[in-house]
From TrEMBL:
<dbReference type="InterPro" id="IPR037054">
    <property type="entry name" value="A-glucoronidase_C_sf"/>
</dbReference>
<dbReference type="InterPro" id="IPR017853">
    <property type="entry name" value="GH"/>
</dbReference>
<keyword id="KW-0119">Carbohydrate metabolism</keyword>
<protein>
    <recommendedName>
        <fullName>Xylan alpha-1,2-glucuronidase</fullName>
        <ecNumber>3.2.1.131</ecNumber>
    </recommendedName>
</protein>
<keyword id="KW-0326">Glycosidase</keyword>
<feature type="domain" description="Glycosyl hydrolase family 67 catalytic">
    <location>
        <begin position="148"/>
        <end position="467"/>
    </location>
</feature>
<dbReference type="InterPro" id="IPR029018">
    <property type="entry name" value="Hex-like_dom2"/>
</dbReference>
<feature type="domain" description="Glycosyl hydrolase family 67 C-terminal">
    <location>
        <begin position="468"/>
        <end position="693"/>
    </location>
</feature>
<dbReference type="Pfam" id="PF07488">
    <property type="entry name" value="Glyco_hydro_67M"/>
</dbReference>
<comment type="similarity">
    <text>Belongs to the glycosyl hydrolase 67 family.</text>
</comment>
<keyword id="KW-0378">Hydrolase</keyword>
<dbReference type="InterPro" id="IPR011395">
    <property type="entry name" value="Glyco_hydro_67_aGlcAse"/>
</dbReference>
<dbReference type="GO" id="GO:0016787">
    <property type="term" value="F:hydrolase activity"/>
</dbReference>
<feature type="domain" description="Alpha glucuronidase N-terminal">
    <location>
        <begin position="25"/>
        <end position="144"/>
    </location>
</feature>
<dbReference type="Pfam" id="PF07477">
    <property type="entry name" value="Glyco_hydro_67C"/>
</dbReference>
<dbReference type="Pfam" id="PF03648">
    <property type="entry name" value="Glyco_hydro_67N"/>
</dbReference>
<keyword id="KW-0858">Xylan degradation</keyword>
Amino acid sequence: MYRIIVSLLLILCPLLIKANDGYKLWLQYLPFENKAVADYYRDYLENITLIGESPTHGVIRKELEIAIDSFLEGKTKSNISSKNINSGLIWIAGTVDLPQNIKASLAERIKEIKEEGYLIKYFQGKIFVTANSDIGLLYGTFALLKNIQTRKSLEDLDILENPKIQLRLLNHWDNLNRTVERGYAGFSIWNWHRLPGHIDQQYIDYARANASIGINGTSVTNVNANALVLTPEYLEKAAALADVFRPYGIKIYLTARFNAPMMLDSLPTADPLDPLVQAWWMKKAKEIYSYIPDFGGFLVKADSEGQPGPHNYGRTQADGANTLADAVKPFGGIVMWRAFVYNEKTPTDRIKQAYDEFKPLDGKFRDNVIVQVKNGPLDFQPREPFHPLFGAMPNTPLMMEFQITKEYLGQETHWVNLSTSWKEILQSDTYAKGHGSTVSKVLDGSLHNYQLTGMAGVSNIGTDRNWTGHHTGQADWYAFGKLAWNPESNIDGITEDWLKMTFTLDPSFVNAAKKIALNSYETLVNYMTPLGLHHIMARSHHWGPGPWVTGGGRDDWTATYYHKASKDSIGFDRTEKGSNAIGQYAQEWNTVWGNPETIPMEYLLWFHRIPWNKKLSTGNTLWDEMALRYQKGVEGARWMQKEWTKLEGKIDQERFDHISSFLNIQVKEAEWWRDACLLYFGQFSKMALPAGVENPKHELQYYLNFKRNFVPGI
Ligand code: BDP
């Protein structure tokens, strides 16, 4: 009998955990798991004092209500009082509203709070959340809620946080027709047709989620820009979004098409030095600010991949950026000018072109321009060394552009924890001012004393119910916000917090899932592009392997341009003897990376051309090492799948199954990558697969012929 009851309970247990479609992201506010926990927090949550009045205070009040209702399962209503009475055990008030005695005791700490920062301090039986601005107070509230979500002891709280980076933005590559370039989670969440009349709840939840991780800006349109967004028809709609975002501390930015003066008003030129063009941008800026008084500014992709730009008029990137910057300057706006500038007609190695073009312009940009640089010199590959511009432009603020959407990393069906790769870049040493000059210090402005600092993430959000396609894509959005707030943040802690807030506090789940997450990045690199291989994906949609991609209009969009496999060797020689891209880095890196014996294996074929039969430090030939890494990647994906299977019943079945089915896809695609790449490269090496590497499932021809229609995101 006992056994029957136990088995019944085991079967029912997962069913008792409510289905969850993931819409609430990390703001699940999971109910307290037992009476003791509930009693502990209830004391604090029953009476809260929230002092002050503003739209942001309204947001704070609402968020507290949502959270408390969910924590306590609607059983206890919280009394959130706005009167300065000594009732609440949680006190949320700007520094000016704090009672005198508290203010005096916290005076020293309060001085350290900067504009968007906050202090959470347990003091004499109460918790004080305080800030100098409404938005700081909102951030403090979310931070307090996070501590409750992760069940921290409140008596220990003494947290003073200021963001290390000023501009923390999402970049949506969303088109006005709602398709999303490189978007794999459905259509654009911006329903331009229904705006401004209809404000979808999702816009509000979007703002909540972003504010909860400190994101304070969003560029809502594709960098391959449509000039129409700058017309009154769309400005009215953008203004409606800006109104939604404002109480959450989020500014709206728009992408500006460089030849908009020609497209919208038939000017004969878009030459940035032409007075008529300059006057056009001035007038346009004034018009935009009449709709959106706190408009953040422009994000611009120019002279790249068919986008118009200053090159068309023989002008520099600085000339282009400055014209737009002058137009928004009187209103406090900025210009984020992308450094992703390259051209197939320029004969140099593609990865050198941005540096060659921008470095000489250091110091030539207006003070409200920030140059936005991708993490690596090519294009969001699974692994790239850091972009050599970081550290090379002391007189021009540079901001980071990471890609949260996984264009080159399996797209939405692969679980790969992106913060692992971001951390690798952020901690890279540029040696610009000697050892310790990390990318992260370039970004936070401390290395070169930048007056503007920023980090942008290309959004992975769409209309999918769970926002990001893969449930774990939410972790990348979350981690991006956290790293933009503080690029030194610990990613182990970020991942753990996200798992706890999103799924369950059960440590057996959290620890196992964290292990999967933190191993996922290296696994993916192994089954896609081990040893520094890059740009070997299928043409155009970039889904799946395509090391054979060659020919066509643009050599720099092929795979053969990058791997250069021949019967003797493989890899791109970027040393002094080759393209000398290595020369764009500090001497310290030249020494280490310039030598195939000392370069870390991850970058080997990025910088060197290596014979197939060369013995590496591992004792394997290059060919064997490559094959073994591909195999290791596949085994890693299988391991992820196996470990995940063990977690059934620990979270809701809905999300468990969703992730399981994506892991099945991931394993199959990892095998596809391995088999296709090894068969293709094997034609050159003519070497047998080493022991331990499985034979490919099909002949090479099968992979060459493998085509799918309507892959999303193009
Ligand atoms: C590449 C994408 C392309 C983008 C481009 C960019 O393939 O769709 O337009 O980057 O960043 O990764 O501008």
